[in-house]
Amino acid sequence: MKKIIIIDDHQLLREGINSWVSVNSDWQILAKLGNLEEVKAFIESYKPSQTDCVVAIVDLSFKVSGVNTEKLYGFEILKMFKNPELNIKTLVYSSHESGGIIAHSLSKEIGACGYVSKNSDCNEILTALEAIAKGEKFIQPNLLTSYINAQTKLNLLTHREKEILNCVFAKYTNDEIAKNMNISKRSVENYLSRVYDKTGTNNKQQLLEYLEKN
Asked: What secondary structure letter does DSSP report for 181?
């Protein structure tokens, strides 16, 4: 049986995907989750199936209470589903279309199996879901060129530097990065310096702008 989990902080979008997929395909809706806490609770109570094909459709940007800007903690959610015992694959469905973000989403560190833009036709989601169900990777065709270009640049980064990059995407402070990675703040600064050198940037804002444009 083919099932999907819809993860987005906009209720209208969750319900819209739910209705469209239910009417236009044989995929069943397993869960609709609106924030990180709901995802954690779902994973804790979830009983993996070895016969069902389950794909989580994950947005990257989420509104956080008390914060004016959205945070890209969709990357954290994607990493949670990397656990092979869950037997759940992931598809990013996001308004971000830059090659840097796509390449980071599909990297080994994050683990997404596919990427579709929210600006695409609804049928693109079904095409992606069917490809992922067959064990294939899927990238929306018109995003492939920017993905390939960005992937080449990100391959210059080490595994640890990519972990730092993930925290930068999530807009963590250096103190938060240090706590999250269990390293010193000085080590964070050293890693960031290397990432800046490899991308030709000078600070986190420039790094994000670089990745969002490339």
From this structure: H
Query: Could you read off the pLDDT of 138-188 as tens digits, one per residue?
Result: 999 999 888 887 777 778 888 888 888 878 877 788 999 999 889 999 999
Q: How far is residue 91 from each of residues 24, 49, 158, 166, 206, measured CA to CA in Å?
A: 18, 18, 24, 17, 27
Distance (Å, rounded) from C-alpha 35 to C-alpha 19? 20
d(CA 195, CA 164): 9
Summarize pLDDT for 54-104 with one digit per residue, the tens.
999 999 988 766 555 567 788 889 999 999 999 999 999 999 888 888 988
| % of residues, the chain, pLDDT over 70 | 95
Q: Which residue has the tokens 């397993």?
A: 30
User: How many Cα neighbours within 13 Å face the side chain of 154?
Assistant: 31
Residue whose pair of structure tokens reads 């990397």 in the numeric block: 82
Q: How far apart are CA 36 and CA 16, in angstroms?
A: 20
pTM of the complete model? 0.79
Biggest alpha carbon distance in the chain?
A: 53
Q: Cα dihedral sign for 45, 102, 50, 129?
A: positive
CA angle 93, 91, 162 (to 5 degrees): 95
Helical segments of 59-202, H only: 74-80, 99-105, 123-133, 144-154, 159-169, 174-181, 185-199
Residue 70: helix, strand or coil by DSSP? coil
